[in-house]
Amino acid sequence: MTPDDSILLDEPTTADLRAKVTEAWREFAAALATLLPTLQPGAHVDITLDPTASGTGTAVYSVSMRVAQDGFVEALAVGNAELPTEYRMDRAAVADMVALGWSPPGVLPGSGDSFGLRGGPDQARELATAVSRTLRDVYGAPHPAFLVYLVHDEEDEPIETTPLGTARHEPAVGGTVDLDDLEDDDALEAALATVDADVVPLEERVRTVVATMSKTTVDQLQVDADGDIGIRAGSAMVFVRVRDNPPLVDVFSPILTEVEPTEQLYVKLSELTNRMPIGRLYCAQDTVWASIPVFGRNFQAIHLMLAVQVMTGLADELDDRLHGEFGGKRFFVEGDKPVPAKDRPSDEHRPGMYL
């Protein structure tokens, strides 16, 4: 343990990442289990691993559920015939699908090239668990925030529902964090006028800024059990946490997990931190974190916006760079898909955009 480890382990950014991700999946499965019994016959729930985040091109991993006239839920999950050759599931992944309860393609009437699953109204919890584990363990979604979903009727008219955990509602998928798109936005100017008011609590101001950047509403922000706001931007997962004492907004991201702490790693993180315009990189337990603090006193919305923009860029860039040098596991990468290791592309060291 390095001299700084005892300090870093007390920081909010060093919370158990695995526990945070596991809890997010539990919330997603619970929300889906609660939703299914409320839907009328003919309703559909379509859930897709966002291809813009996965970098898998035309490969789309999705699960679609339909409520039949008898009240049973029929689910279809994408099979190999619907995937490009290089992204098809191997035998182990297919076996995992069967173990989760899916019938092979063509077995369930009307399933065609998809895996099929059918359950009654009293089996909503089991269905939701199977779907959640399929998306996470077989299709490789690292966090529900990388999922997009749409609930609609037989005429494709959207059905208003409560959010499915931190998954993103499909109409909001286009809302990525990009300051260039927001500079002349009237909604942004109105939001900034609101959040800069001294009478508004810091937490509310922060949520207003993040919601405006994400082109969504405060009520639909992805907030986990720790109170952290989750932002999925590209291949990065960024969290925003508000601290009361002292007033501080922490923008942080898990760059690399399951990495072995070595002297070389600490030296590298120190060198990179010294070259960063703001923020720092550090290793706590077996995770490399990036953190950018924003002062809560005299809070300025533009400071938080810049921190989020820089963090999403850093996380997306550094996970590849550090993984290539120190191994470990990136939060989200093509290699997490069910693709044989020998077929995965090697990492390339891209020119530093922020460093």
Automatic annotation (TrEMBL):
Q: Which Gene3D superfamilies match?
A: 3.30.1460.10
**What are the residue boundaries of the TY-Chap central domain, all occurrences included?**
202-333
Protein name, UniProt field: YbjN domain-containing protein
Q: Which SUPFAM superfamilies match?
A: Type III secretory system chaperone-like
Read off the InterPro entries from this record. TY-Chap_M, TY-Chap_N
Organism from which the protein derives? Actinoplanes missouriensis (strain ATCC 14538 / DSM 43046 / CBS 188.64 / JCM 3121 / NBRC 102363 / NCIMB 12654 / NRRL B-3342 / UNCC 431)
Can you give the residue ranges of the TY-Chap N-terminal domain?
23-147
A Pfam family that this protein carries is TY-Chap3
- Which intervals of the chain form a coiled coil? none
